[in-house]
Amino acid sequence: MGMTWTEEQKKVIDVRNKNVLVSAAAGSGKTAxxxxxxxxxxxxxxxxxxxxxxxxxxxxxxxxxxxxxxxERVGLAxxxxxxxxxxxxxxxxQQTLIHNAQITTIDSFCQYVIRNYFHQIDLDPSFRxxxxxxxxxxxxxxxxxxxxxxxxxxxxxxxxxxxxxVEAYATGxxxxxxxxxILQLYEAAISYPYPKRWLxxxxxxxxxxxxxxxxxxxxxxxxxxxxxxxxxxxxEELQEMREFCRTSGGPxxxxxxxxxxxxxxxxxxxxxxxEEIRLGLSGLxxxxxxxxxxxxxxxxxKNQVKxxxxxxxxxxxxxxEKYFSLPLAAAAEVLAKAAPATEELLRLxxxxxxxxxxxxxxxxxxxxxxxxxxxxxILVEDVQVSAGEAGxxxxxxxxxxxxxxxxxxxxxxxxxxxxxxDEYQDSNLIQEIILNSVARGQGVPNVFMVGDVKQSIxxxxxxxxxxxxxxxxxxxxxxxxxxxxxDLHKNFRSRREVLDGTNSVFARLMTEAVGGIRYDSAxxxxxxxxxxxxxxxxxxxxxxxxAAAVSPWTAGTFRDGLKMNTPELLLLDxxxxxxxxxxxxxxxTGRELEAHAAAxxxxxxxxxxxxxxxxxxxxxxxxxxxxxxxxxxxxxWGEEYARVLTAEGIPAHTESRTGYFTTIEIQTLxxxxxxxxxxxxxxxxxxxxxxxxxxxxxxxLAQIRSAFPEKAFYESCMRYREEGEDAALRERLAKFWExxxxxxxxxxxxxxxxxxxxxxxxxxxGDYLAAQPGGRQRQANVRMLIQRxxxxxxxxxxxxxxxxxxxxxxxxxxxxxxxxxxLGENEDAVRIMTIHKxxxxxxxxxxxxxxxxxxxxxxxxxxxxxxxxxGVGVDWVDPKKRTKTATLPKRILQKALxxxxxxxxxxxxxxxxxxxKEKLILxxxxxxxxxxxxxxxxxxxxxxxxxxxxxxxxxYLDWILPSAAVPEDSPFAVAxxxxxxxxxxxxxxxxxxxxxxxxxxHPENLPGSDPAYAKALEExxxxxxxxxxxxSLRGKLSVSELKRAGQTExxxxxxxxxxxxxxxxxxxxxxxxxxxxxxxxRGTAYxxxxxxxxxxxxxxxxxxxxxxxRLVEEGRMTKEQADAVRPYDIYAFAKSDLAKRMTAARAxxxxxxxxxxxIRMPANELEIGCESxxxxxxxxxxxAFFYEKNxxxxxxxxxxxxxxxxxxxxxxxxxxxxxxxxxxxxxxKRLTGKRVKEKVIYSFCLxxxxxxxxxxxxxxxxxxxxx
Length: 1267
Hints:
Blueprint: H1 7-14, E1 19-24, H2 30-43, E2 57-61, H3 64-84, H4 89-97, E3 102-105, H5 106-117, E4 128-129, H6 132-151, H7 156-169, H8 176-189, H9 195-205, H10 211-216, H11 218-245, H12 255-269, H13 274-282, H14 299-323, H15 328-363, E5 365-366, H16 368-379, E6 380-385, H17 392-395, E7 401-405, H18 407-415, E8 418-421, H19 429-437, E9 447-451, H20 465-474, E10 483-488, E11 490-491, H21 496-509, E12 526-527, H22 540-550, E13 553-554, E14 568-573, H23 582-587, H24 590-608, E15 610-613, E16 618-621, E17 627-631, H25 638-647, E18 652-654, H26 664-677, H27 682-690, H28 698-707, H29 713-723, H30 727-747, H31 752-763, H32 765-771, H33 775-792, H34 799-812, E19 830-834, H35 835-838, E20 843-848, E21 864-867, E22 871-878, E23 883-886, H36 888-913, E24 916-926, H37 929-935, H38 937-940, H39 947-951, H40 957-965, E25 973-977, H41 979-1001, H42 1011-1021, H43 1028-1031, E26 1036-1038, H44 1039-1045, H45 1079-1092, H46 1101-1113, H47 1119-1124, H48 1127-1135, H49 1137-1147, E27 1151-1162, E28 1175-1189, E29 1195-1203, H50 1210-1232, E30 1236-1243, ...
Parallel strand pairs: 1-9, 1-10, 2-3, 2-8, 4-5, 8-9, 11-12, 13-25, 14-24, 14-25, 17-19, 17-20, 18-19, 20-24, 26-28, 29-30
Antiparallel strand pairs: 6-7, 15-16, 21-22, 22-23, 27-28, 28-29, 30-31
Helix pairs in contact: 1-2, 2-3, 3-4, 5-16, 6-15, 7-15, 8-9, 8-15, 9-15, 11-12, 11-14, 11-36, 16-19, 21-40, 24-25, 24-41, 26-27, 29-30, 31-33, 32-33, 44-50, 46-48, 50-51
């Protein structure tokens, strides 16, 4: 049976010879209609219409997946037609042509144009698209080279301009901030057809910054429009508030003040210039509210009026302070001072574009923006803007543009019978021009565009929804013109309850000012298909309707008696702990509380709700796989939700966004690749030997290392293979090296992905991973590494060495891919995903969570604000006073970006709510929920929220509360949950689990229990892991960590290092050439000096200086280290008895400095509060030790530890470092077999040596050395 089309859908399918814009609401069957239109054109279904070959259509979609789906659906539709008419030769031909049909993305179409017309732009046709990681690295290299060249600029004038730019925009101690600014400007520029022209327009705006030019600028035009919108909206609010004062119980005595406010708002609304508005705002004077008392007046209504007035005053004050605080001349003066540095920034962005393009040319590379610009160069000679519309291009409009197209464009235009653009709301200006250049134009209009501006959520990809809206407003909805707009309103996805909930929210929220379109009857969603209603439990439906209408605020089990499919709003008040809930609340974060509330919600849905199974034609209980949790961002939320749901016994999955490179399987494989490339890398070699691939134990590695301690680890392995004592270990090493030699030989001719696959097969590591816990995830991660290797092989680099470096560079640029996804479509688990990821999908039950999360306003807080239409807004930085002042254009651009961000967030919210088929649930948390609800009472009465309320929102809840929670006619069932209630439910579940545990802990009491089975069950349930204490024990600790573990809580671990004299610098620190040396760096410098210097020749401080200079010259110390050492300190040490003993030992070759060690000790001997006997490795470095003979002629050891800490007595050092020296003693006894006779601390602060044993003896007698 064929599809039954609505009247509007049929019109979309049949309309011909027009440019068509289809505004297709969510769930309106857009894709099905588009496929049917393609089929209709190909088959010539319209009367008098000839059939058309499918490859004469150009169908452009947003993603490759969408293009593949479209091609498949068109192919299946052709098959069905051919089955009905098997002898049709035209249809037979189309089945062959469908594989070459241009159902494609815009990038693929641009590639097609370039491949066929490359000769027209002198392009090497063998170019390739660069890998994302490769291009990021290339951009970084180019921008760093650019800055380095300008730092080395010799021309004084050029150098001065660059220096001023750096002073204005550099942050921190690196150029990272400058690099980011240049790259951001470049990204903004390339979204335009002619990037250099855009940069030039931005620069022109700063070349004439007189008050007159500022008054006529696009910045001022935007500001005056914004102010006019604000004042007009304020008038409406005041008029409504005046009527509110007149209602029954209203505060009529406040009407005079409101009338006075209204008169001032009308005066402001009549202002037309900057100065008029500035003076108007400066002269505002608000009348006092009448103090008259009247018991008939509702106190709550009085409070609403007061709250409204306070909000109004704040809004006007903010408007004045941000935009109208300075006279126009003063604002222009600030702008003029910022202009030189801004021009330099724009010039650098242009120069970066040239250099980056040249680098890509040399490597024969292109990126995706290149595809568009190269195709534009082939198809369009110029874009001419009509007189009087010079600014039109920058504003994104195209109706006044005239394209001067090339012969190539005319040739393609003659080929394409129809151009169809899917997801048109996400196009940008350059894509618009490219596709218009191959259209037939006014002769035979043939452009078909379909989309929904309410779902334009790719602003971060530089989408321009205003292109859609331009045609939305200009195309007529009636026949007779060469253009037509057709609206598809009906939604065939969702139930009526979901649509009612969505419409009620967005009718109040979405306006042209914020959102891009007025959510009126033309934009609303209408039910497209009636679905069977579930059979309600007896008495359920009536109660539900009455409960929802009378009191949407219910507590606890508010779903009792609630009609199925009713949309719900769950609010978590994080400010209201209840008795018994405080401890629980303190333990949980807001995200965790939300996740637990979501778990409660899902549990109830599984118990109570049913969904309509369209395939089975019947209702069935909800499954976990029916449910999706949508979040604005997974970062910090997704894994938290997954963890909580899993702990609550609910299967859940979210794709990880980080952690790929830190997984053990990826680290092991990368280390193996490093060793195959170069086995002389000790750490990767040890890691591979220790892994399953090598199969060597810790003891094996220690045995190899200790046999040849003076050699590098690689050399130790090679020597042990030939000379080692343990024959079995020698044989294993020889076998490993033989395998490694084979891998190295194969690496010379195998592709990287083939090498990885062979390594996995030959070593058995792939099978090993599969058998591990989480084996599927581990295997998926390895497959992702193979995919990265395949991608690398298409780059300009070759070989294993470069692949390893490529991965390391990606890690350094934080290009973490997240762990590979392993969830199949049919897995019965709750999915947790971003709203962006859900676009185009549908789910029976949708839970939109995280509604209290603050919006990301990062773009508006940058040092330089970039707007694609209004250009660049900057701060003026006074390099002398080091003050920063935001220019007027920057504040305007910040507001423009903020409003556009809010519009995008509004559309993102719309996408989230329209994913639900059967059930929609909103979940958000906020502090002070009751105060927020009180604040939004006035807005809740309005049919459309005020511009002030919409534009001041900081979270989705700031929109949801006045549009869904407050209105009396809201279709949402609303429940307010406190952390105490949440904790109570969690406690109830815990008690239930304990009761079940108690039952199963005595299975012999169960009826019909088998005694043997009961005993086995009891043994299993009562099993306690005997080594639980060792689970959290680390396998390796440093001496410093053990020392800290032994300190008391009162001791300060971060004791100040050797004190420096207070010197007041003559210039501020930020202007000094060098940074002060930190205490840790100074301590390192002292240790290095003591390691390298010969104490015997240090007769005075000048001699120390000379020796330090010699060490710097020889490269044994850096200049910064030498400067950190006080020569007198070294001289004083050289005169000490300890130094003389050390010098004598050095002469006997009995002195050792900076001696590293690793020893193994049982955990219960380490004083870390662990009774386990599990061995732990202790590592450290001994500053110095030397041998002296006793009276028997036996060598004994003296241990020396240098300290630069600031202390007042030697006792402090003893208390802090005695444990550290004890470990040194143990290590030396084990390493040498000799007795340690002395342990000495030398304090550079006290200028004295502190014998540890002497100190301990003195402490027993009541005094200490150094006191």
